[in-house]
Design a protein that fits this description.
Layout lengths: L8 E5 L4 H11 L3 E6 L20 H4 L6 E4 L5 H13 L2 E4 L5 H5 L3 H7 L4 E6 L14 H8 L22 H21 L4 E5 H8 L5 H6 L17 E3 L8 E5 L4 H8 L14 H6 L1 H12 L4 H10 L3 E4 L10 H5 L3 E6 L3 E6 L22 H9 L3 H9 L4
Parallel strand pairs: 1-2, 1-4, 2-3, 4-5, 5-6
Antiparallel strand pairs: 7-8, 8-9, 10-11
Helix pairs in contact: 1-7, 6-8
């Protein structure tokens, strides 16, 4: 069956992570995402962290599957004219340029609306388009810093710590995708299009709500507590043989404590008043953690996970980024897929996390730079070979 966004055409002017993560989700759901890139150079992530000069970097590959690539020089008047013709046929334009860049191009939302009154215009900026910080550029770690994530992450007494998942970039992209889908729904219902705006700082703050609870309660800043949460026991425990990622994550809720004591051979402690209640265990936190660690450190993390999971205890092995590529659960759910790309060879790729009963998402290789330029312009705008060759000679595409 066609995807739910099969009839949606998106002009994607985004680069790096925040915007491309948004449009990739929409492409997976069936939208025709036309990634518009600068001729010759393209998205800068094609080259950043690349293993060799001949192949696009995995930095580019992980955010641009299922898209088509059109090279177009928006600094030239001819390039702008071609873009505006595409806008007439599109549903959505999305960009994450620096503040004011679209206005410099003469491609502001107001200008695009004159060409297509039903165009949905989505923008991702570090601090949005208004407010005292709106002229400041941002990246993921800056959004993490300004959104509160860094201040609450790290060990007690240590410096604020960067969060590995791209909550500033990909987090903004996911928020923007939701906004775009809402705008599409409204346009389908009322005929009215609108502007969608996501600030990276806003997105990080939204993701920080769980860590804001103490601040709302006390008016004080959340403390960095490492692998402890809300003064409770550690969230992870060491496993055998003691490598850097040989740990298991545990949540001991309800009768899980007694179950763990029984399975670990410490049943004599069941009912001990020092540990019998959650409050008592909090009063004897270091002893509780030592009891758990002494046992888990003798066991393999995966064996332990299976054993405790079968007993109803919430748990999970701490997997490194290599281990997750071989995780049976992720492979079964097509979250780790094998790509067979004649241009780049075979490699593993991350799949679509949204599962729809009506859609079996097929992950397609990200496009080569300008791979679909002729196809798009002839298909959508009806340009003939003579016109396309002229645009190529002039460096427009």
């Amino acid at each position: 069956m066609p995807g739910p966004l099969d009839d949606v055409k998106i002009l994607d002017l985004t680069q790096v992570q925040a915007g491309p993560s948004c449009t990739q989700i929409l492409a997976w759901l069936g939208a025709d995402v036309i990634k518009i890139e600068e001729p010759i150079r393209g998205d800068r992530t094609r080259r950043e962290r690349a293993k060799n000069e001949d192949d696009d970097s995995f930095y580019f590959l992980v955010f641009n599957a299922n898209k088509r690539s059109l090279t177009l020089n928006l600094k030239s008047q001819v390039g702008k004219d071609v873009f505006l013709k595409l806008v007439k046929e599109a549903d959505i334009v999305i960009e994450n340029y620096g503040p004011g860049r679209m206005e410099i191009f003469g491609l502001s939302y107001e200008n695009l609306k004159l060409v297509n009154s039903k165009i949905i215009y989505a923008t991702i900026k570090g601090f949005g388009t208004y407010g005292p910080y709106s002229d400041i550029k941002s990246f993921d770690h800056i959004a993490q810093a300004m959104g509160g994530a860094m201040s609450a992450n790290g060990d007690a007494g240590a410096e604020p710590t960067f969060v590995a998942p791209g909550v500033g970039d990909s987090g903004s992209g996911l928020h923007c995708a939701i906004g775009i889908l809402a705008a599409l729904r409204q346009r389908d219902r009322t005929g009215d299009a609108q502007r969608v705006e996501v600030s990276m700082q806003d997105a990080v703050l939204n993701l920080m709500r769980i860590r804001m609870i103490d601040t709302f309660n006390t008016g004080k800043a959340a403390k960095r507590s490492g692998n402890r949460l809300w003064d409770g026991p550690r969230l992870i425990y060491p496993c055998y043989p003691g490598g850097p990622n040989d740990y298991i994550a545990l949540v001991l809720a309800g009768d899980s404590w007694d179950t763990l004591l029984a399975v670990s051979g410490r049943s004599e402690l069941i009912g001990d008043e020092r540990y019998a209640t959650e409050e008592a265990r909090l009063d004897n936190l270091e002893e509780v953690e030592e009891i758990i660690s002494e046992w888990t450190s003798t066991r393999d993390k995966y064996e332990l996970m299976n054993e405790l999971g079968d007993l109803g205890i919430a748990c999970g092995a701490v997997q490194d980024t290599s281990e997750i590529l071989h995780d049976r659960q992720l492979i079964e759910r097509s979250m780790v897929v094998e790509m067979d790309d004649p241009s780049r060879g075979s490699y593993k790729m991350i799949g679509c996390p949204i599962k729809l009963s009506s859609l079996d998402v097929v992950i397609k290789p990200p496009p080569l730079l300008g791979e679909h330029s002729r196809e798009i312009l002839s298909q959508i705008l009806g340009m003939d070979n003579t016109t396309l060759e002229k645009l190529e000679r002039e460096g427009v595409i």
